[in-house]
Structure prediction request, 303 residues.
Amino acid sequence: MTCDSVGKLIPLYFYGELPSEEEDRVEAHLHECAACTRELDRLTALAETLSRRSVEVPANLLEDCRADLKAAVEGGAPLLKPAAKGPWTLFLEALAATLPSVSRLRIPAGALAMLALGFFAARYSGVGRTWWRSADDSALITVQSIQQDPSGIVQVGYDEIHHLVASGRANSPDIQKLVLAGMSNPGARVQSVALLDPQTDTEVRDALLSDLEHDSNVGVRLGILNKLTPMVSQADVRKTLARVLQTDENAAVRMRIVDLLTAQRDDSLVGVMQAQVQREDNAGVQQKLVKALKDMNASVGTF
Prediction:
């Protein structure tokens, strides 16, 4: 493969979206090409930087988008004045402000279609429920039931969702607990990993070890590996890494785990590495495993 073709595939490779055959070819090229390897490192660093960035968007952006979509579906004109910027323009400007250094990448049409579908589904999926903001705009309200008694008194059952903001230093226990809770939100997992400190809290460490085995986002898993790097000498961390090495489908994750496990000699892992060499389908990972076994004066095969 040429550097030009690999450069176009690196973003898909980073997020684990390439077919296995093409992924193998990209990794073989990366193993031999320092320039493309630097490009992958640049993308990794960019993803980590973006996870720490935030952007201010108008408070009514979602409502405006939903209104415009409804008007378009029903054949009506947009609700916003033509002279004003539409919600899509505001959204794309906010996205551009958040992603200034990836202008070479183009947003796939399918992604925009899914985004539009998401807004539309959010507007109409709440069958039997009505959402609106409270008078002081401090809460989102959903009506669950409405009843009227014989005297004319109406009883409305509703729930309020309040948006709260907590602030503090990243290493404070309260902030760490909230950030850890953010791991359950698909839109906040990458940012959560960047802020969590597994060295100061056993609960955080255990949660990261669990997510390393079960999170479907390869970017999240790679971020967790970076966080666990200082703790690789711990027996339970190494045990989890060895288990993930044998089960993770992403070659970049497996390659990173081999690097971590071979940072210090551990003869108890010889059997795991020997078995993985036999089943490994990625040439780059297999080569690293073979080198590690030779450095440990262990045979490559199992007997």
Summary: Residues 34-50 form the longest helix (17 residues). DSSP finds 14 helices and three strands in the chain. The radius of gyration is 25 Å. Residues 71 and 212 are 44 Å apart (CA to CA).
